[in-house]
Amino acid sequence: MSTSRTLRRAIQTYAILWVCCLIDWVWFSRADLPHWLDLVRNALRWGVFATSVPLCAFALVAALRGRRQPAAVDQISAPERPGTPAPALAATALFLALWQFGVFAFDAFGFDAFRAQVATTGTWLSFLVGLCWVIWGLEKISARYEARRRVAVEHAERAGSPLPLNWNPLDTGAWYYRLALADWFNPRRFNAILRELRAPQSSHYGDDRRKLNQSVAGFCSYTLAFYLAFLLMTQVGGCSESFELPAGGGEQAQIAQQVKVQKVIKKKFVVNPFSAIKFKVPPIDDIKLQLTEITKHAYAFGYGEGAGAGYAGGTNRGKVRFVRLEYVGGDWNQDFGVGADLNMLIEYGIRTKQPVHGETESRTIAEIGAVPLGKGPAFVFMTGQRNISLSAAEVKMLRTYVTEKHGMIFCDNGGSAHFHNQFFAMMNQVLPNVRPVTIPLDDVIHKIPYQIPFLPYVAPHGGRDAYGWKIDGRWVAYYHPGDIGDAWSDGHSGVKAEVWEACFQLGVNVMQYANAEYSKWLLAQQEKKK
Fold this sequence. Notes:
The protein is of the alpha/beta class. It has 13 helices and nine strands. The strands form three sheets. Strands 5-6-9-8-7 form a five-stranded mixed beta sheet. Strands 1-2 form a two-stranded antiparallel sheet. It has a two-stranded parallel sheet with strand order 3-4.
């Protein structure tokens, strides 16, 4: 008996510790703590969340074995309550532990897409699992109340006294389960049914309707409770992605630089493929261009006060991300990923010293629109050379993104005058009251951190000028007319080194501008809440 009680207390203590770690991770993960204390907290989280999976699996195996053996054989485990499905309880605990640990691990390693997918799938599965438990619980509890009610009816019939109105929602004998939807709006019918319910002989009248009404009420109540819990615990699900900037600070200053282009000639190896001698062929690069920047001062690029290059509105786990916008009608994925715009993201991290995400990503307009206020990406990249087809809802989402959520659209014409017209028509829908203007070379977006002496492009599909849409002094959309993405790709489409280097510099400028403006807005929002 003492062993069983000790085991129950140990399980309860571990469950309380798991819940505390969960609450700490959900609501207090961004709290500023000393470095050593933050390490201890993270180690405790990993230990508790990781061990919960094998412990729940062991409990499931033990429950399944206990079900097969006689009750007297197992003297250590606590006696199971009649009707309690121990294997089902253990399986539910194992599911919750796996779900939580999966979300936590993907979040810790920065796999945001996997985290969101696991969180969303687990949320729907948890809803179904919880609904099964609600149905099972209602069936068991209502059966007990049914037995009690029959005894009460017999006593009332013997005494000849009316029954009091039953208000218990767990009992199918509750008076409101007897009513149909139309009865609530008919006063005469409503009063007549109340009189009938007080008579003992009519206490079982309409049991089928009562059972159905109780089931509907239980489903609606559970759905509402689950939705409220989901709103409260949104962060644990991770269903709404968070695109956080890296914490830190920096100057909005211009790089004083001198660029030198050097040619590094590598040896060529001619190897006979039919030779009997095994020879490892090294990478063959004819010419590799190296650029050396000589700066007068070392800057920490970013915005605001903080340690390291980053943004005062960012977080310790935040990273600069390059998000491609998916749309219907064209080739949104032109020059996407490794060997293309990933080069731009890597260059941004090298040149600004800011932490960047390990890969470029793509999101639909609906996914961008679903991100909460203050958690969205500072900019989204868009390119292509064919059609752009947006629904009215998508147009509204983009308008909200660039106006209310303070985001920016960075668009590159990927190869046609047709795409130029398509993008301008799209922006006319998104911002019908804002007209595009050419962005001069002396604008801040072309001066910080790099001074752009000319607008670089691979081919002028949309002219030779950059265009922008400005709201309240901020560029909310930047349009590049000619294949800047091709200049970022491996091989740089054969353009001169001065051109593709200027394209990288321009990319850094636009990304830095979007991040800095977004950080300014985040800080302003925080000041308003104080």
